[in-house]
């Protein structure tokens, strides 16, 4: 379990304070409005990106989380691009990976046609799939992805959610996203983040229309149909 005893970040105009939150194996999704603190939270957990951290007491399986790189694969909301071919980018962060593992990742993320291309020339969704393939090859116990669905078309949004749900069987996956319906359909837990404070993690069925409306400041209704969540604007 990834246990956040306290994470406090203070910027000039924004403060984040998360206390006593535990994330276990499974697909844990963080939802919340723009500027709510999702990216700051993830940066604070890994300690990258120089967030103004005041307090950071985080434990992985009851031990203080120090060697983050051994534990967490982190994909930030914006990742820089540079001139490197996809095949090399895939294994760049993974150390020694077998040819079979690479081939499986290429197939899983449907990127066979991209392996000889430069990272700089990929479309947004293609780059996202390549980045997720890279993360999968790192094979770490925690996967943290900021804005998983960003850039992905409808088909690949579902493919990625299925991938993360499967990874959740053996890893702790934490991802932020903006598509609340997709999140409520696939998540094992939902965490709502607003103004640097969280509610959760909680099971998706515990998230009410009132909670999600208050989180986004918009009248929203959640309905569930055959295991698929619908979230719509109820004030139109
Ligand atoms: N380095 C920084 N210095 C000062 N303020 C910052 C910094 N990074 C983020 N902020 C501010 O902190 C707040 C939270 O930003 P954050 O990026 O964590 O939100 P978010 O929930 O990820 O939003 P989005 O959905 O738009 O990605 C915002 O008001 C943002 O302007
Ligand atoms: Mg963000």
TrEMBL record:
One of the Pfam families matching this protein, by short name: ABC_tran
Keyword Nucleotide-binding (UniProt): yes
Top-level lineage group: Bacteria
Statement: the UniProt record of this protein carries the keyword Nucleotide-binding: yes
InterPro entries: AAA+_ATPase, ABC_transporter-like_ATP-bd, Metal_Ion_Import_ABC, P-loop_NTPase
GO function terms (MF aspect): ATP binding; ATP hydrolysis activity
Signal peptide extent: none
Record-annotated ABC transporter domain positions: 1-220
Gene3D superfamilies hit by this protein: P-loop containing nucleotide triphosphate hydrolases
SUPFAM superfamilies assigned: P-loop containing nucleoside triphosphate hydrolases
Keyword terms of this UniProt record: ATP-binding, Nucleotide-binding, Transport
PANTHER family referenced in this protein's UniProt entry, alphabetically: ABC-TYPE IRON(III)-SIDEROPHORE TRANSPORT SYSTEM, ATPASE COMPONENT, METAL TRANSPORT SYSTEM ATP-BINDING PROTEIN TM_0124-RELATED
Protein name: ABC transporter ATP-binding protein
Species in which this protein is naturally found: Salinicoccus cyprini
């Amino acid at each position: 379990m990834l246990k956040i005893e306290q994470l406090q970040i203070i910027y000039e105009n924004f403060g984040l304070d998360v206390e006593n939150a535990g994330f276990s194996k499974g697909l844990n999704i963080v939802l919340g409005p723009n500027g709510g603190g999702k990216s700051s939270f993830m940066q604070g957990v890994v300690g990258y990106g120089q967030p103004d951290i005041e307090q950071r007491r985080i434990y992985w399986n009851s031990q203080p989380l120090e060697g983050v790189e051994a534990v967490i694969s982190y994909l930030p909301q914006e990742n820089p691009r540079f001139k490197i071919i996809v095949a090399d980018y895939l294994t760049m962060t993974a150390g020694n990976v077998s040819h079979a593992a690479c081939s499986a990742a290429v197939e899983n993320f449907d990127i066979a046609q991209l392996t000889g291309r430069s990272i700089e020339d990929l479309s947004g969704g293609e780059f996202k799939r390549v980045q997720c393939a890279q993360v999968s090859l790192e094979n770490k116990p925690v996967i943290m992805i900021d804005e998983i669905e960003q850039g992905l078309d409808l088909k690949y949004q579902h493919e990625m959610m299925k991938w993360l749900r499967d990874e959740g069987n053996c890893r702790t996956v934490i991802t932020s996203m903006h598509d609340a319906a997709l999140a409520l359909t696939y998540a094992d837990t939902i965490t709502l983040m607003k103004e640097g404070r969280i509610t959760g993690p909680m099971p998706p069925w515990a998230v009410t229309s009132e909670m999600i409306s208050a989180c986004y400041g918009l009248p929203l209704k959640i309905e569930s149909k055959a295991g698929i969540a619908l979230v719509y604007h109820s004030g139109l």
